[in-house]
From TrEMBL:
It comes from Anatilimnocola aggregata. Keywords: Membrane, Repeat, TPR repeat, Transmembrane, Transmembrane helix. The chain crosses the membrane at residues 39-60. It holds the Pfam family TPR_16. It comes from the Bacteria. The lineage of its organism: Bacteria, Pseudomonadati, Planctomycetota, Planctomycetia, Pirellulales. InterPro entries: TPR-like_helical_dom_sf, TPR_rpt, Ycf3. This is Tetratricopeptide repeat protein.
Length: 840
């Protein structure tokens, strides 16, 4: 078969024939008979020749491309042609691995060459990074034959120049073994890699710098550069003596001598202790700084100074002035560096250093602006390279600034800075900061409640819960970011717990369930308890009980079991199983190692008293709803029996809750507990009163009367004590439940006095209630009771006057008032009732 070059020849002949025919056509027009026949034969021959040539062209096998063909343009310096050819070949689907490797080698080598020609640092790093990826792929397949040493060397340089120091160190070491002629360059690069790694490895770096200095053929300039690099390694390791010793080896005629002078000045500055926050340096402490400024000033003003050295000297001068407390001069130098050396490591460092200084001075907005600018100007995390402020140091300074903002209660600014820091600081760390900020913000809002009105307290609590949910969301993101680490379960548990605190019950449930799916026993009891709380809050009582029962079954010796019983008791109360709830609380109080000093013991005591009170109320309600019996006497006897049982429970509740309030007077449950004690006394009096209706024995009646009077007097005393406690300067800031307790105390105290037959005192007590709540529906109950007291005292005119007053009050009560919520009747029924009373 004809080769590709032969096919090209045939096509050329066909083109020549076509041109000849074109020239003949004019002659044919002039002499059709003489020229026509030959022309026709010629056309036939042309068509046949064209078909034959075209067939040969398309049927011929293309010339096979070799690795040498791929590499040839690169070797000849034809970079664009080399890249284009390699890119086209790579697009072929069936390209063998040998050619693939050659194409990748060419693409990586071309990009590495182009990277060195660009003057833009960011673009140079990006091109080197892409070049490194191509070359690394070629290496993994197998570098072209006789190009292994060159390929590894180019790959090592690309990684190093792309600031990828960890892979660069590995490839530089391999390149060193394959390219001994480049040992000086490679040892220098290896030293720099280990110096700039995060965290730096100065010991390894020093090993390479020592090998570099021992290499034969090292020039005086290279030796000075090596000594300067060694000094930087020692400086990073905080070995100032060794640093100065290395700097002393740099000749004063060397081109790197100005850099050595700048580093020597850094050493001097580092030796001087910085002033403590909020304090100024004394005269003796200022002297070394002033001397250093005097030495640096002429160096910084020297003409022809390299830009990098000039920036370093200016930054040192700024730091000296800052330590001296010369804010104006320091700000001048910081601003000058940012203007003249924009994008340099010194410009970035000056931005952060000035921001630190402003933050320390409490200038939050100004410092935040600079921090944001510094983060924008600094390279992304993987490209960041600044020997003035290594990434770990930047992280430490940002953390200090965030902490300072929180001390100044500037939580929004702290959160903004933490979010902006994600460009330079690892995402998990910024999420951790943001979660902690939101939690601290919530705690601060809750601390602001003291002395605030009830409405303000409600608003602060709602805001705090919002920030807690934000903290939980950041923790959840943190868990996702650290899913492959040992921190993952802890992050999940912390997120779910914080959601629970912020009333995000569904998210809390999801988080606790996800945590419980992890194969870890640590934290499981706490997670089960949290899940139980979340389910209880959502009204899913049966599920909550099943969850809490797991704690009691699986972790019966764990301290979390006490809280599980407490929560399970609350769930059982919701279901109405008060006896089972009591058993759990009794187990906490009397069947465990809990002491009265523990929170669970205290809460169990209050909860037990509340359950005893509820049991009393349950039996009292049954006494009013005894089903029909064979006789009325039997029904009354059953009613009395239920009242007697109720009185027994009330007596238990009084004893338990009195102990609780005496032991823990400052507990949040103490107000409600004191109110239930008062209520228990008042309701307990119903049993002796009911028995008096059926008992005829005088001694028994006297005993019942004494008990009745004692219970009601005790109730009055407890109500009065609560009224005095709640009616103080803090009333406007009290919780809604406390205000409801206060209202009930006013009315129930009057009822107890009425039941005692102390009508004058009852009138006064009811009047106090009506004066306080005259615009509320419940005041109508008090007016009716006042009228009843007057009738009992046979003061009928005053009774009628009171009822008229009640009718006036009824007219003034707002139209949308909910009468059924706090009284026995709706508005229309009250109108009818008061009209009927006025006829009596």
């Amino acid at each position: 078969m004809t080769d590709a070059h032969g096919s090209t020849s045939q096509v050329s002949k066909a083109r020549f024939s076509l041109a000849a025919v074109t020239q003949i056509l004019p002659a044919a027009r002039r002499s059709p008979l003489k020229v026509g026949l030959p022309l026709a034969l010629g056309l036939v021959a042309f068509i046949v020749a064209t078909y034959y040539a075209t067939s040969l062209y398309f049927l011929a096998e293309p010339e096979k491309v070799t690795v040498a063909d791929v590499l040839a343009p690169l070797d000849e310096g034809l970079l664009q042609e080399a890249r284009q050819q390699a890119a086209e070949l790579r697009s072929q689907p069936d390209l063998d691995e040998e050619l693939q490797s050659a194409c990748l080698f060419v693409l990586g080598s071309v990009l590495a060459e182009e990277a060195e020609k660009t003057g833009q640092p960011t673009q140079r790093r990006l091109l080197n990074l892409i070049a490194a990826r191509y070359l690394d792929q070629s290496r993994q397949i197998g570098l072209p034959k006789d190009r292994e040493a060159q390929g590894v060397l180019t790959l090592a340089r690309a990684f190093y120049r792309a600031n990828r120091y960890v892979p660069a160190a590995t490839m530089l070491a391999e390149a060193l073994a394959k390219n001994p002629d480049s040992a000086i360059e490679l040892e220098h690069a290896l030293t720099d890699c280990y110096l700039k790694m995060q965290p730096p490895q100065p010991k390894v770096a020093l090993t390479h710098i020592e090998r570099l200095l021992r290499l034969p053929g090292i020039s005086p300039r290279q030796r000075d550069e090596a000594h300067l690099l060694a000094a930087n390694v020692h400086f990073t390791a905080n070995n100032t003596a060794a640093c100065e010793a290395s700097l002393a080896q740099v000749l004063d005629t060397s081109s790197v001598f100005p850099q050595a002078q700048a580093l020597a000045a850094r050493v001097q500055l580092q030796r001087l202790p910085p002033p403590k926050p909020g304090q100024s340096l004394g005269t003796a402490e200022q002297q070394p700084l002033q001397t250093l400024i005097a030495e640096l000033q002429p160096l910084a003003e020297r003409k022809g100074l390299e830009q990098g050295v000039a920036a370093q000297l200016s930054l040192l001068l700024a730091q000296c002035h800052e330590r001296l407390g010369k804010q104006k001069e320091a700000a001048h130098f910081y601003g000058r560096i940012r203007k003249l050396h924009h994008g340099s490591p010194e410009a970035v460092a000056s931005t952060f250093l000035e921001a630190d200084w402003l933050a320390g001075a409490g200038q939050v907005e100004e410092s935040l602006t600079l921090y944001r600018r510094g983060l924008q100007e600094a390279e992304p995390s993987e490209d960041y390279d600044n020997h003035w402020l290594p990434r770990q140091e930047i992280e430490r300074r940002l953390e200090a600034a965030i902490r300072r903002y929180q001390e100044l209660k500037s939580f929004a600014e702290a959160a903004e800075l933490a979010e902006a820091a994600a460009s330079l600081v690892a995402l998990p760390q910024t999420l951790l900061w943001r979660a902690e900020i939101e939690r601290a913000w919530a705690a601060d809002l809750l601390d602001q409640q003291k002395g605030r009105s009830r409405e303000e307290k409600d608003l602060l609590q709602a805001q705090a819960r919002t920030h807690l949910r934000e903290a939980a969301a950041r923790d959840r993101e943190l868990a996702a970011a650290r899913v492959a680490t040992r921190n993952f379960p802890d992050d999940l548990l912390r997120s779910a717990t914080t959601y629970l605190q912020g009333y995000g019950y569904q998210q809390a449930e999801q988080g606790f369930r996800q945590f419980l799916q992890q194969q870890t026993r640590e934290g499981q009891p706490e997670a089960l308890i949290g899940l139980g709380q979340a389910l209880l809050a959502q009204g899913r009582t049966s599920e909550a009980l099943a969850t809490l029962d797991q704690v009691q079954q699986m972790f019966d010796k764990h301290p979390a079991n006490y809280q599980a019983r407490l929560l399970a008791a609350a769930a059982l109360q919701e279901q109405g199983d008060l006896s089972a709830a009591r058993e759990l609380l009794n187990a906490n109080l009397f069947g465990s190692a809990l002491t009265p000093q523990s929170t669970e013991w205290r809460d169990s005591l209050f909860a037990l008293g509340h359950i005893q009170f509820r049991q009393g109320m349950t039996h009292e309600a049954r006494s009013r709803n005894v089903p029909p019996q064979e006789t009325e006497d039997k029904r009354l006897a059953e009613s009395l029996r239920e009242l007697e049982i109720a009185a027994g429970f009330f007596e238990e509740a009084i004893k338990t809750l009195t102990e609780a309030t005496q032991r823990f007077p400052a507990a949040s449950q103490s107000i409600a507990a004191t109110y239930e004690v008062a209520e228990a006394y008042r309701h307990a009096a119903k049993w002796p009163r009911q028995r008096l209706q059926v008992v005829t024995i005088d001694s028994t009646r006297q005993t019942l009367n004494r008990q009745l009077t004692s219970d009601l007097n005790s109730a009055v005393a407890e109500y009065t004590r609560l009224i005095e406690r709640l009616s103080d300067d803090q009333e406007s800031s009290r919780a809604t439940v406390d205000l409801k307790v206060l209202r009930n105390c006013y009315f129930n105290r009057a009822d107890a006095l009425f039941d005692l037959g102390r009508y004058e005192e009852a009138i006064q007590a009811y009047s106090a209630a009506t004066n306080r709540y005259q615009h509320e529906p419940e005041s109508l109950e008090a007016y009716v009771q006042i009228a009843t007291c007057y009738r009992r005292l046979q003061r009928y005119a005053e009774a009628r006057g009171t009822l008229e007053q009640a009718r006036v009050v009824l007219e003034r009560i707002r139209k949308d008032a909910d009468f059924a919520k706090t009284t026995r009747f709706d508005r229309q029924q009250w109108i009818q009732l008061l009209e009927w009373f006025s006829t009596l």
